[in-house]
Design goal:
Hydantoin permease, NCS1 nucleoside transporter, mainly alpha, transmembrane helix, about 575 residues, transport, 2 domains, single chain, globular, transmembrane
Length: about 575
């Protein structure tokens, strides 16, 4: 890519020797390319009644037009097919000749940078060639090796009044249980080549799948907001008030955009190494403040309500990963030795191990915080960032550097999440044909202002958000798992990939929506949150996600049989 840029620059300098000519030349070149791309878009997707765009509609001087053409021909001769995107756009081969020979400037740069333009289309078998199955471990490990899990672990003592021992046991049990769903659904990505919400069409149907897609978008966006707030608070803690949390949020959001912008290969490359500095920084933080962790506060004996409610928080952290699990594994080769077993094991360990360890660390920090004035002051100032800053204060300037590293460890999580958001947007509005990376920009513009607002009352916003996502995602998982094992007999070949976007060949989705909606008749009484406690949850604690999973799965079986009987699909 750098060699290409150098050649372009040399050609530019040779053909335009004065500042005025430079400006005129660049204006001409960019304008011609913009018009060419508009013409391509119009001829491919536009209405026939509209006037045809052409490069001739733009007045370009002859000399500068020739200069632009020279650069075009020189660049085309260098064989840009070497930099083909990861997922080819299906309509590209049908594009007009002018569109193929005169690529838009921005798009050429993106292609050279290995940006994935493909979206929700099933990945062809010949493209699923990645045999580095261990990447399934590294990507999940990197996504979860950061201070987000520490924040969730702190909720045990801070919000639910559980001591360190009780919090650790709840974290261990509920993490192992709720990790099964995303680990299993990760195995279907290589087998089907379909993203998670496209697979969901085979139970929810082409149109009703929009409901879980919208809920998934809200969930993923909420996680991105939380991550931006935590990262912004860490950066604010480093600056001792000179940098506001809002500015820190913007920095984290823009940095995540750059990674998610590029797509699957860049994401997997980054995630393959991001966990290393994250782990080192966390170990240093524990080394600096770990001797204080033994100063645990005393708590009342754990109650069933407290245990189940905190367990619901843990499950709400883990289960939503199931709704994007296949998005991160679709490029793996499905024919390798023990592929499903390896991907399941790598995904399970990558999710469970860092989450359990870091949430337990968070519980230890939260339990000791009230007995350590400096930590409590830091928490009152900038919450998690302030506590970590207080733990690292003994290291001086080096401690501040580590706190910055801890803030940017969150990029591994938010980048993968934003990547999944862009795919969900394309599932929601498939007729709005924009490259995936455009949605990355849109998502970032949405997340940053919401995060700035949520930062004012962070822990309340966190609890309210977590209260909602666990219920619907558990219901979703129950339905798609039953569809796979009961109606597809556990055979991925029974998913007819050829009909992925043919509504008349996909299930109606009435059974799936009916099972989900009916299950909430019992889920609501089992909810225990700050803003609402159901009559059953008064004595049992929050068991909403357990009821949502099992009841949706049970109800789906008879409803799906009835749907198949009357619709034949």
């Amino acid at each position: 890519m750098f060699r290409q840029l150098s050649r372009i620059w040399v050609t530019f300098v040779q053909n335009a020797r004065t500042p005025a000519t430079n400006f005129h030349y660049l204006t001409s070149l960019v304008t011609r390319r913009v018009i060419t791309r508009l013409r391509h878009f119009h001829n491919t997707f536009g209405a026939s009644s509209s006037p045809t765009l052409s490069c001739e509609t733009v007045a370009v001087s002859g000399d500068n037009a020739n200069m632009a053409d020279n650069v075009e021909s020189q660049r085309d001769q260098r064989g840009d097919e070497k930099h083909a995107i990861e997922t080819p756009v299906a309509d590209e081969q049908h594009a007009p000749a002018a569109g193929r020979s005169s690529k838009g400037l921005v798009r050429r740069v993106l292609m050279a940078g290995r940006v994935e333009e493909g979206g929700i289309e099933p990945i062809p078998r010949e493209v699923r060639t990645n045999t580095k199955y261990f990447n399934a471990f590294t990507i999940w490990c990197s996504i979860n090796t950061n201070i987000l899990a520490i924040t969730f672990g702190m909720l045990g003592p801070v919000s639910f009044g559980l001591g360190l021992r009780d919090s650790a046991l709840v974290i261990l049990f509920f993490s192992l249980l709720s990790t099964l769903a995303p680990a299993f659904l990760s195995t279907l990505g290589p087998k089907t080549g379909m993203r998670q919400m496209i697979q969901a069409r085979y139970s929810f149907g082409y149109y009703f799948v929009y409901i879980p897609v919208v809920l998934n978008l809200a969930t993923l966006t909420g996680f991105c907001v939380i991550i931006c707030v935590i990262g912004g608070q860490c950066l604010a803690a480093v600056s001792d008030g000179d940098l506001s949390t809002a500015v820190g949020i913007v920095l984290i959001g823009v940095a995540a955009l750059l990674i998610s912008f590029c797509g699957f290969n860049v994401l997997h490359f980054y995630e393959g190494y991001a966990w290393m500095p994250a782990l080192v920084a966390i170990i240093i933080a524990v080394g600096c403040g770990g001797q204080q962790l033994q100063k645990q506060a005393s708590y009342e004996p754990a109650t069933a309500a407290g245990v189940l409610s905190f367990g619901g928080v843990i499950a709400s952290y883990m289960i939503p990963w199931a709704c994007i699990a296949s998005d991160l594994t679709t490029y793996f080769d499905p024919t390798g030795r023990l592929v499903s077993h390896r991907i399941f094991a790598y995904s399970f360990l990558g999710l469970a191990v860092p989450t359990i360890l870091l949430m337990t660390l968070g519980a230890a920090i939260g339990g000791a915080m009230s007995n350590i004035p400096e930590w409590q002051i830091g928490f009152d100032s900038t919450l998690v960032g302030g506590v970590l800053g207080a733990m690292l204060s003994s290291a001086g300037g080096f401690g501040k550097f580590i706190l910055v590293v801890l803030a940017f460890t969150l990029l591994a999580n938010i980048s993968g999440t934003m990547y999944a958001i862009t795919l969900n947007f394309q599932t929601l509005i498939p007729s709005f044909r924009l490259p995936r990376y455009v949605f990355s920009v849109i998502v970032t513009a949405i997340i940053i202002p919401i995060a700035v607002k949520a930062a004012h009352d962070f822990f309340l916003s966190l609890e309210n958000f977590i209260a909602l996502i666990g219920y619907w995602s558990a219901s979703f998982v129950g339905i798609v798992v039953v569809e796979h094992f009961v109606f597809r007999r556990g055979n991925s070949k029974l998913y007819d990939v050829a009909v992925w976007d043919v509504p008349s060949k996909l299930p109606l989705g009435v059974a799936a929506i009916g099972a989900a909606v009916l299950s909430f008749g019992l889920v609501v009484p089992c909810i225990a949150q700050v803003w609402f406690t159901g009559p059953i949850a008064v004595s049992t604690g929050d068991i909403g996600f357990e009821v949502a999973f099992f009841l949706s799965a049970v109800l789906y079986v008879p409803l799906r049989y009835a749907e198949k009987h009357y619709s034949g699909r």
